[in-house]
Amino acid sequence: MALHLNLLHEEFTEERQRKRDPLKLGIKALIGIGALLFLYYGWNAYQTIEINSQLGSARAEWQKVEPNVTAAQKRAAELHQIIDSTKVLDGFIDDRYYWAPLLALISHCVAPNIQLTSFDGATVETDHTISVTLEGIAAAREPRAAAEEFRQLLNEQLEKKKYGEVKVNFKNLEDLDTMISLQGVPTASARFILSVTFDPTPGDRAKKTEKTDEPRPTKPGKAPNDGDQT
User: Fold this and answer.
1) What separation in angstroms does the CA of 229 have from each of 210, 214, 218, 219, 222?
2) Which of 65, 85, 166, 192 is most buried, by the most CB atoms less than 10 A from its CB?
């Protein structure tokens, strides 16, 4: 059996203790942690620099594009104003009323013994109906009857034109004391004021009402509720 003698036992022990010294181990650990922190913060700094570079590029591109964007926004606002104005003008055009046919119709209803002295017409904005006020003088043995004949004839002619809600009524009808020369003959006269109202486009208005009152289509398999209204 071989016998081994360790003559350097104390030196080996000291060497092991030096290697296992807590201070040295702590220093090595701190160095490792410091290296990791350095790498971590270095990577974050690199990312920050990259982000700032991209932000600078984006700002430079925006400064180039910004004038065009601002001009486009102003142009869009101007176009919207033009469109709105055009819609208003289109509404005026669609709702306008041509007075010439009405004047021609009234002229055909005026008999030789009727003289119109005033005509005032306007479009009612609320319902787009026509309101007319006629003032004149009727001359005949029975001037009131002549004025009534004119009223009835005007009412019939307006209804023949298929106007809606035609109303021709006297606002005032009074005899005059003065005599009027009718074909060289002194004739009694009466002064009248007629109020005329009618709807010039009853058909178009009815179509709009029908479109508004059309029921909404129900989904397949679902019955309409009684409370659903359009």
Assistant:
1) 14, 9, 12, 15, 15
2) 192
What does the alpha-carbon distance between residue 53 and residue 66 come to, in Å, rounded to a whole number? 20
Residue with tokens 């679902």: 222
Same domain, 124 and 190: yes
Domain holding 80, by residue range, is 20-96
Q: What is the pLDDT of residues 14-61, one digit of tens each?
A: 666 666 667 777 888 889 898 999 999 999 999 999 999 999 888 889
User: What would the mean pLDDT of 137-151 be, rounded to a whole number?
Assistant: 93
Do residue 194 and residue 182 come from a single domain? yes
Q: Is residue 221 part of a domain?
A: no
Q: HEC states along 2-52?
A: CCCCCCCHHHHHHHHHHHCCHHHHHHHHHHHHHHHHHHHHHHHHHHHHHHH
> Please, is 11 exposed, middle or buried when counting C-beta atoms within 10 Å of its C-beta (0-12, 13-18, 19+)?
exposed
Chain segment 153-184, per-residue pLDDT in tens: 999 999 988 888 899 999 999 999 888 888 88
- In this structure, the answer to whether residues 114 and 199 fall within a common structural domain is yes
| Separation of alpha carbons 190 and 177, rounded Å | 9
Tell me how many domains the chain contains: 2
CA 128 to chain centre: 20
- 88 and 141 part of one domain: no
Rounded CA separation 47/42 (Å): 9
More confident residue, 151 or 16: 151
Phi-psi region of 17 (alpha: psi -120 to 50; beta: other; left: phi over 0): alpha
